[in-house]
Amino acid sequence: HENTGLRSQPPPEEQNYGATAAHGRQGPFVSVSGNGPAKRHYLIAAVLCYGNLINFMDWFIVPGILLDIQKYFKLSDGDTGLLQTVFILCYMLAAPIFGYLGDRYNRKIILGAGIFFWSGVTLGSSFISESYYWIFFSSRGLVGIGTASYSTIAPTIIADLFEEGKRTTMLSIFYIFIPVGSGLGYVLAAGMAEVTGDWHWAFRITPCMGGLALVLLILLVPHRIQRRTAAHRALSISGTIRVAAEKPGVQRTAKTTWCQDVISLAKNWSFVWSSLGLTAMAFVTGALGMWVPLFLYRAQVVQGIVSPCLQESCSSSNSLIFGGITIGTGILGVIAGAEAARRLRKINNKADPLICATSMFISALCLYIALMVAETNILSTFIFIAFGELFLSVNWAVVTDILLYVVTPRRQSTAIALQILVSHLLGDAGSPYLIGIISNAIQAKNAHSFQWSFWSMQYSFIVCAFVGVFGGSFFLLTSFYIEEDRKEAEQ
User: Fold this and answer.
1) InterPro entries from the xrefs (predicted)?
2) Which residue segments constitute the domains of the chain, with CATH numbers given?
């Protein structure tokens, strides 16, 4: 077994142990063989999937009780949007660092430290008083750093435990916990606020779940897991799938080759346009994830369905419903997108970008309709938001497939790293804050009222519909180049 890092020599703590590696059951590490995955490998994968569930639950606790937090700390819409922006930025910047450490040092220790860190910070944030809102902002950034350690390293362990066929299945299961965990984050936050009457308790459950994950990690995950050869597909340091399919014996000059790869990718129009389409998707999903429950609450106040929340604890029913929608549409959308692509590729070589373009256009239309009917019919708003999220979710797996066959394997690590960086930086890192400051600007020019509080959010949300149309256009442009770029990558 060879190391899957970027260096020519394996790291000292996870190198090839020769004959000892063939008898991993007797040693302190698990070896990877061609005899198929052992039962313990599935158990390890289950522990890692459980950790991923908690990871994404922590992401969406704040949006689930956003109204309570906004009232408690007396935040404007702009300041409230900054909460998620701080989280995403810290996550985005920390991910490559943990990827670098994960390639060189013991991954179990890094995973355990990350779980302990983000769980501790989440628990501590539940005791911050209203006078220290800046500490609460800082705590969300620290949680982003902690979760980055998990998202970047846990998938690489799964990739090393299973052969290619099983690996795809296990990674799909691992990533399906992203929408499930996101939706459960809303449900947990809203449910705890509803049951206890105090939103602070929402931040005290996931640390307990994180403690259980840490215990399982210590007991069940081996100290060392053998890395696969560089010829196998591994995972990127950015927290998504990396393909390290370098030919044996080929030596690369890291700095020069990276620059050449970036220049080459900039000339790959399928990669460029599909990455911009993914950025538009991230922009829309980031804004929706942060603001939809609060928008629905303001719409209900305007319609007279609920009374304005003047006490500390507010109704969290919208977060509960939206959490369920997120879980359902996320799972169904990913499965439907993959199946549609599989069938349509047989009759049209441009099927993938056309599926993405069509889904983005339909999603943008559904979101626009949801915004327009929100003032008069809340049930229709829920329905069209659900369809909007469903068609957004269709694209996640398909976009990854596009990258993997239009970019030559030698450049796929760089391509995915660039795509993730751009999609976060220009997408979900800024969209919650942008929606918030647009809402602030509209409210500042009009008399303070519940009606204008709703209208300001409605008008600012229209940005997402237009960005969705741009995203569909980017994918449509991808279809013009995809056949040529695919043939070039295959050569």
Assistant:
1) MFS, MFS_dom, MFS_spinster-like, MFS_trans_sf
2) 38-226 (1.20.1250.20), 258-490 (1.20.1250.20)
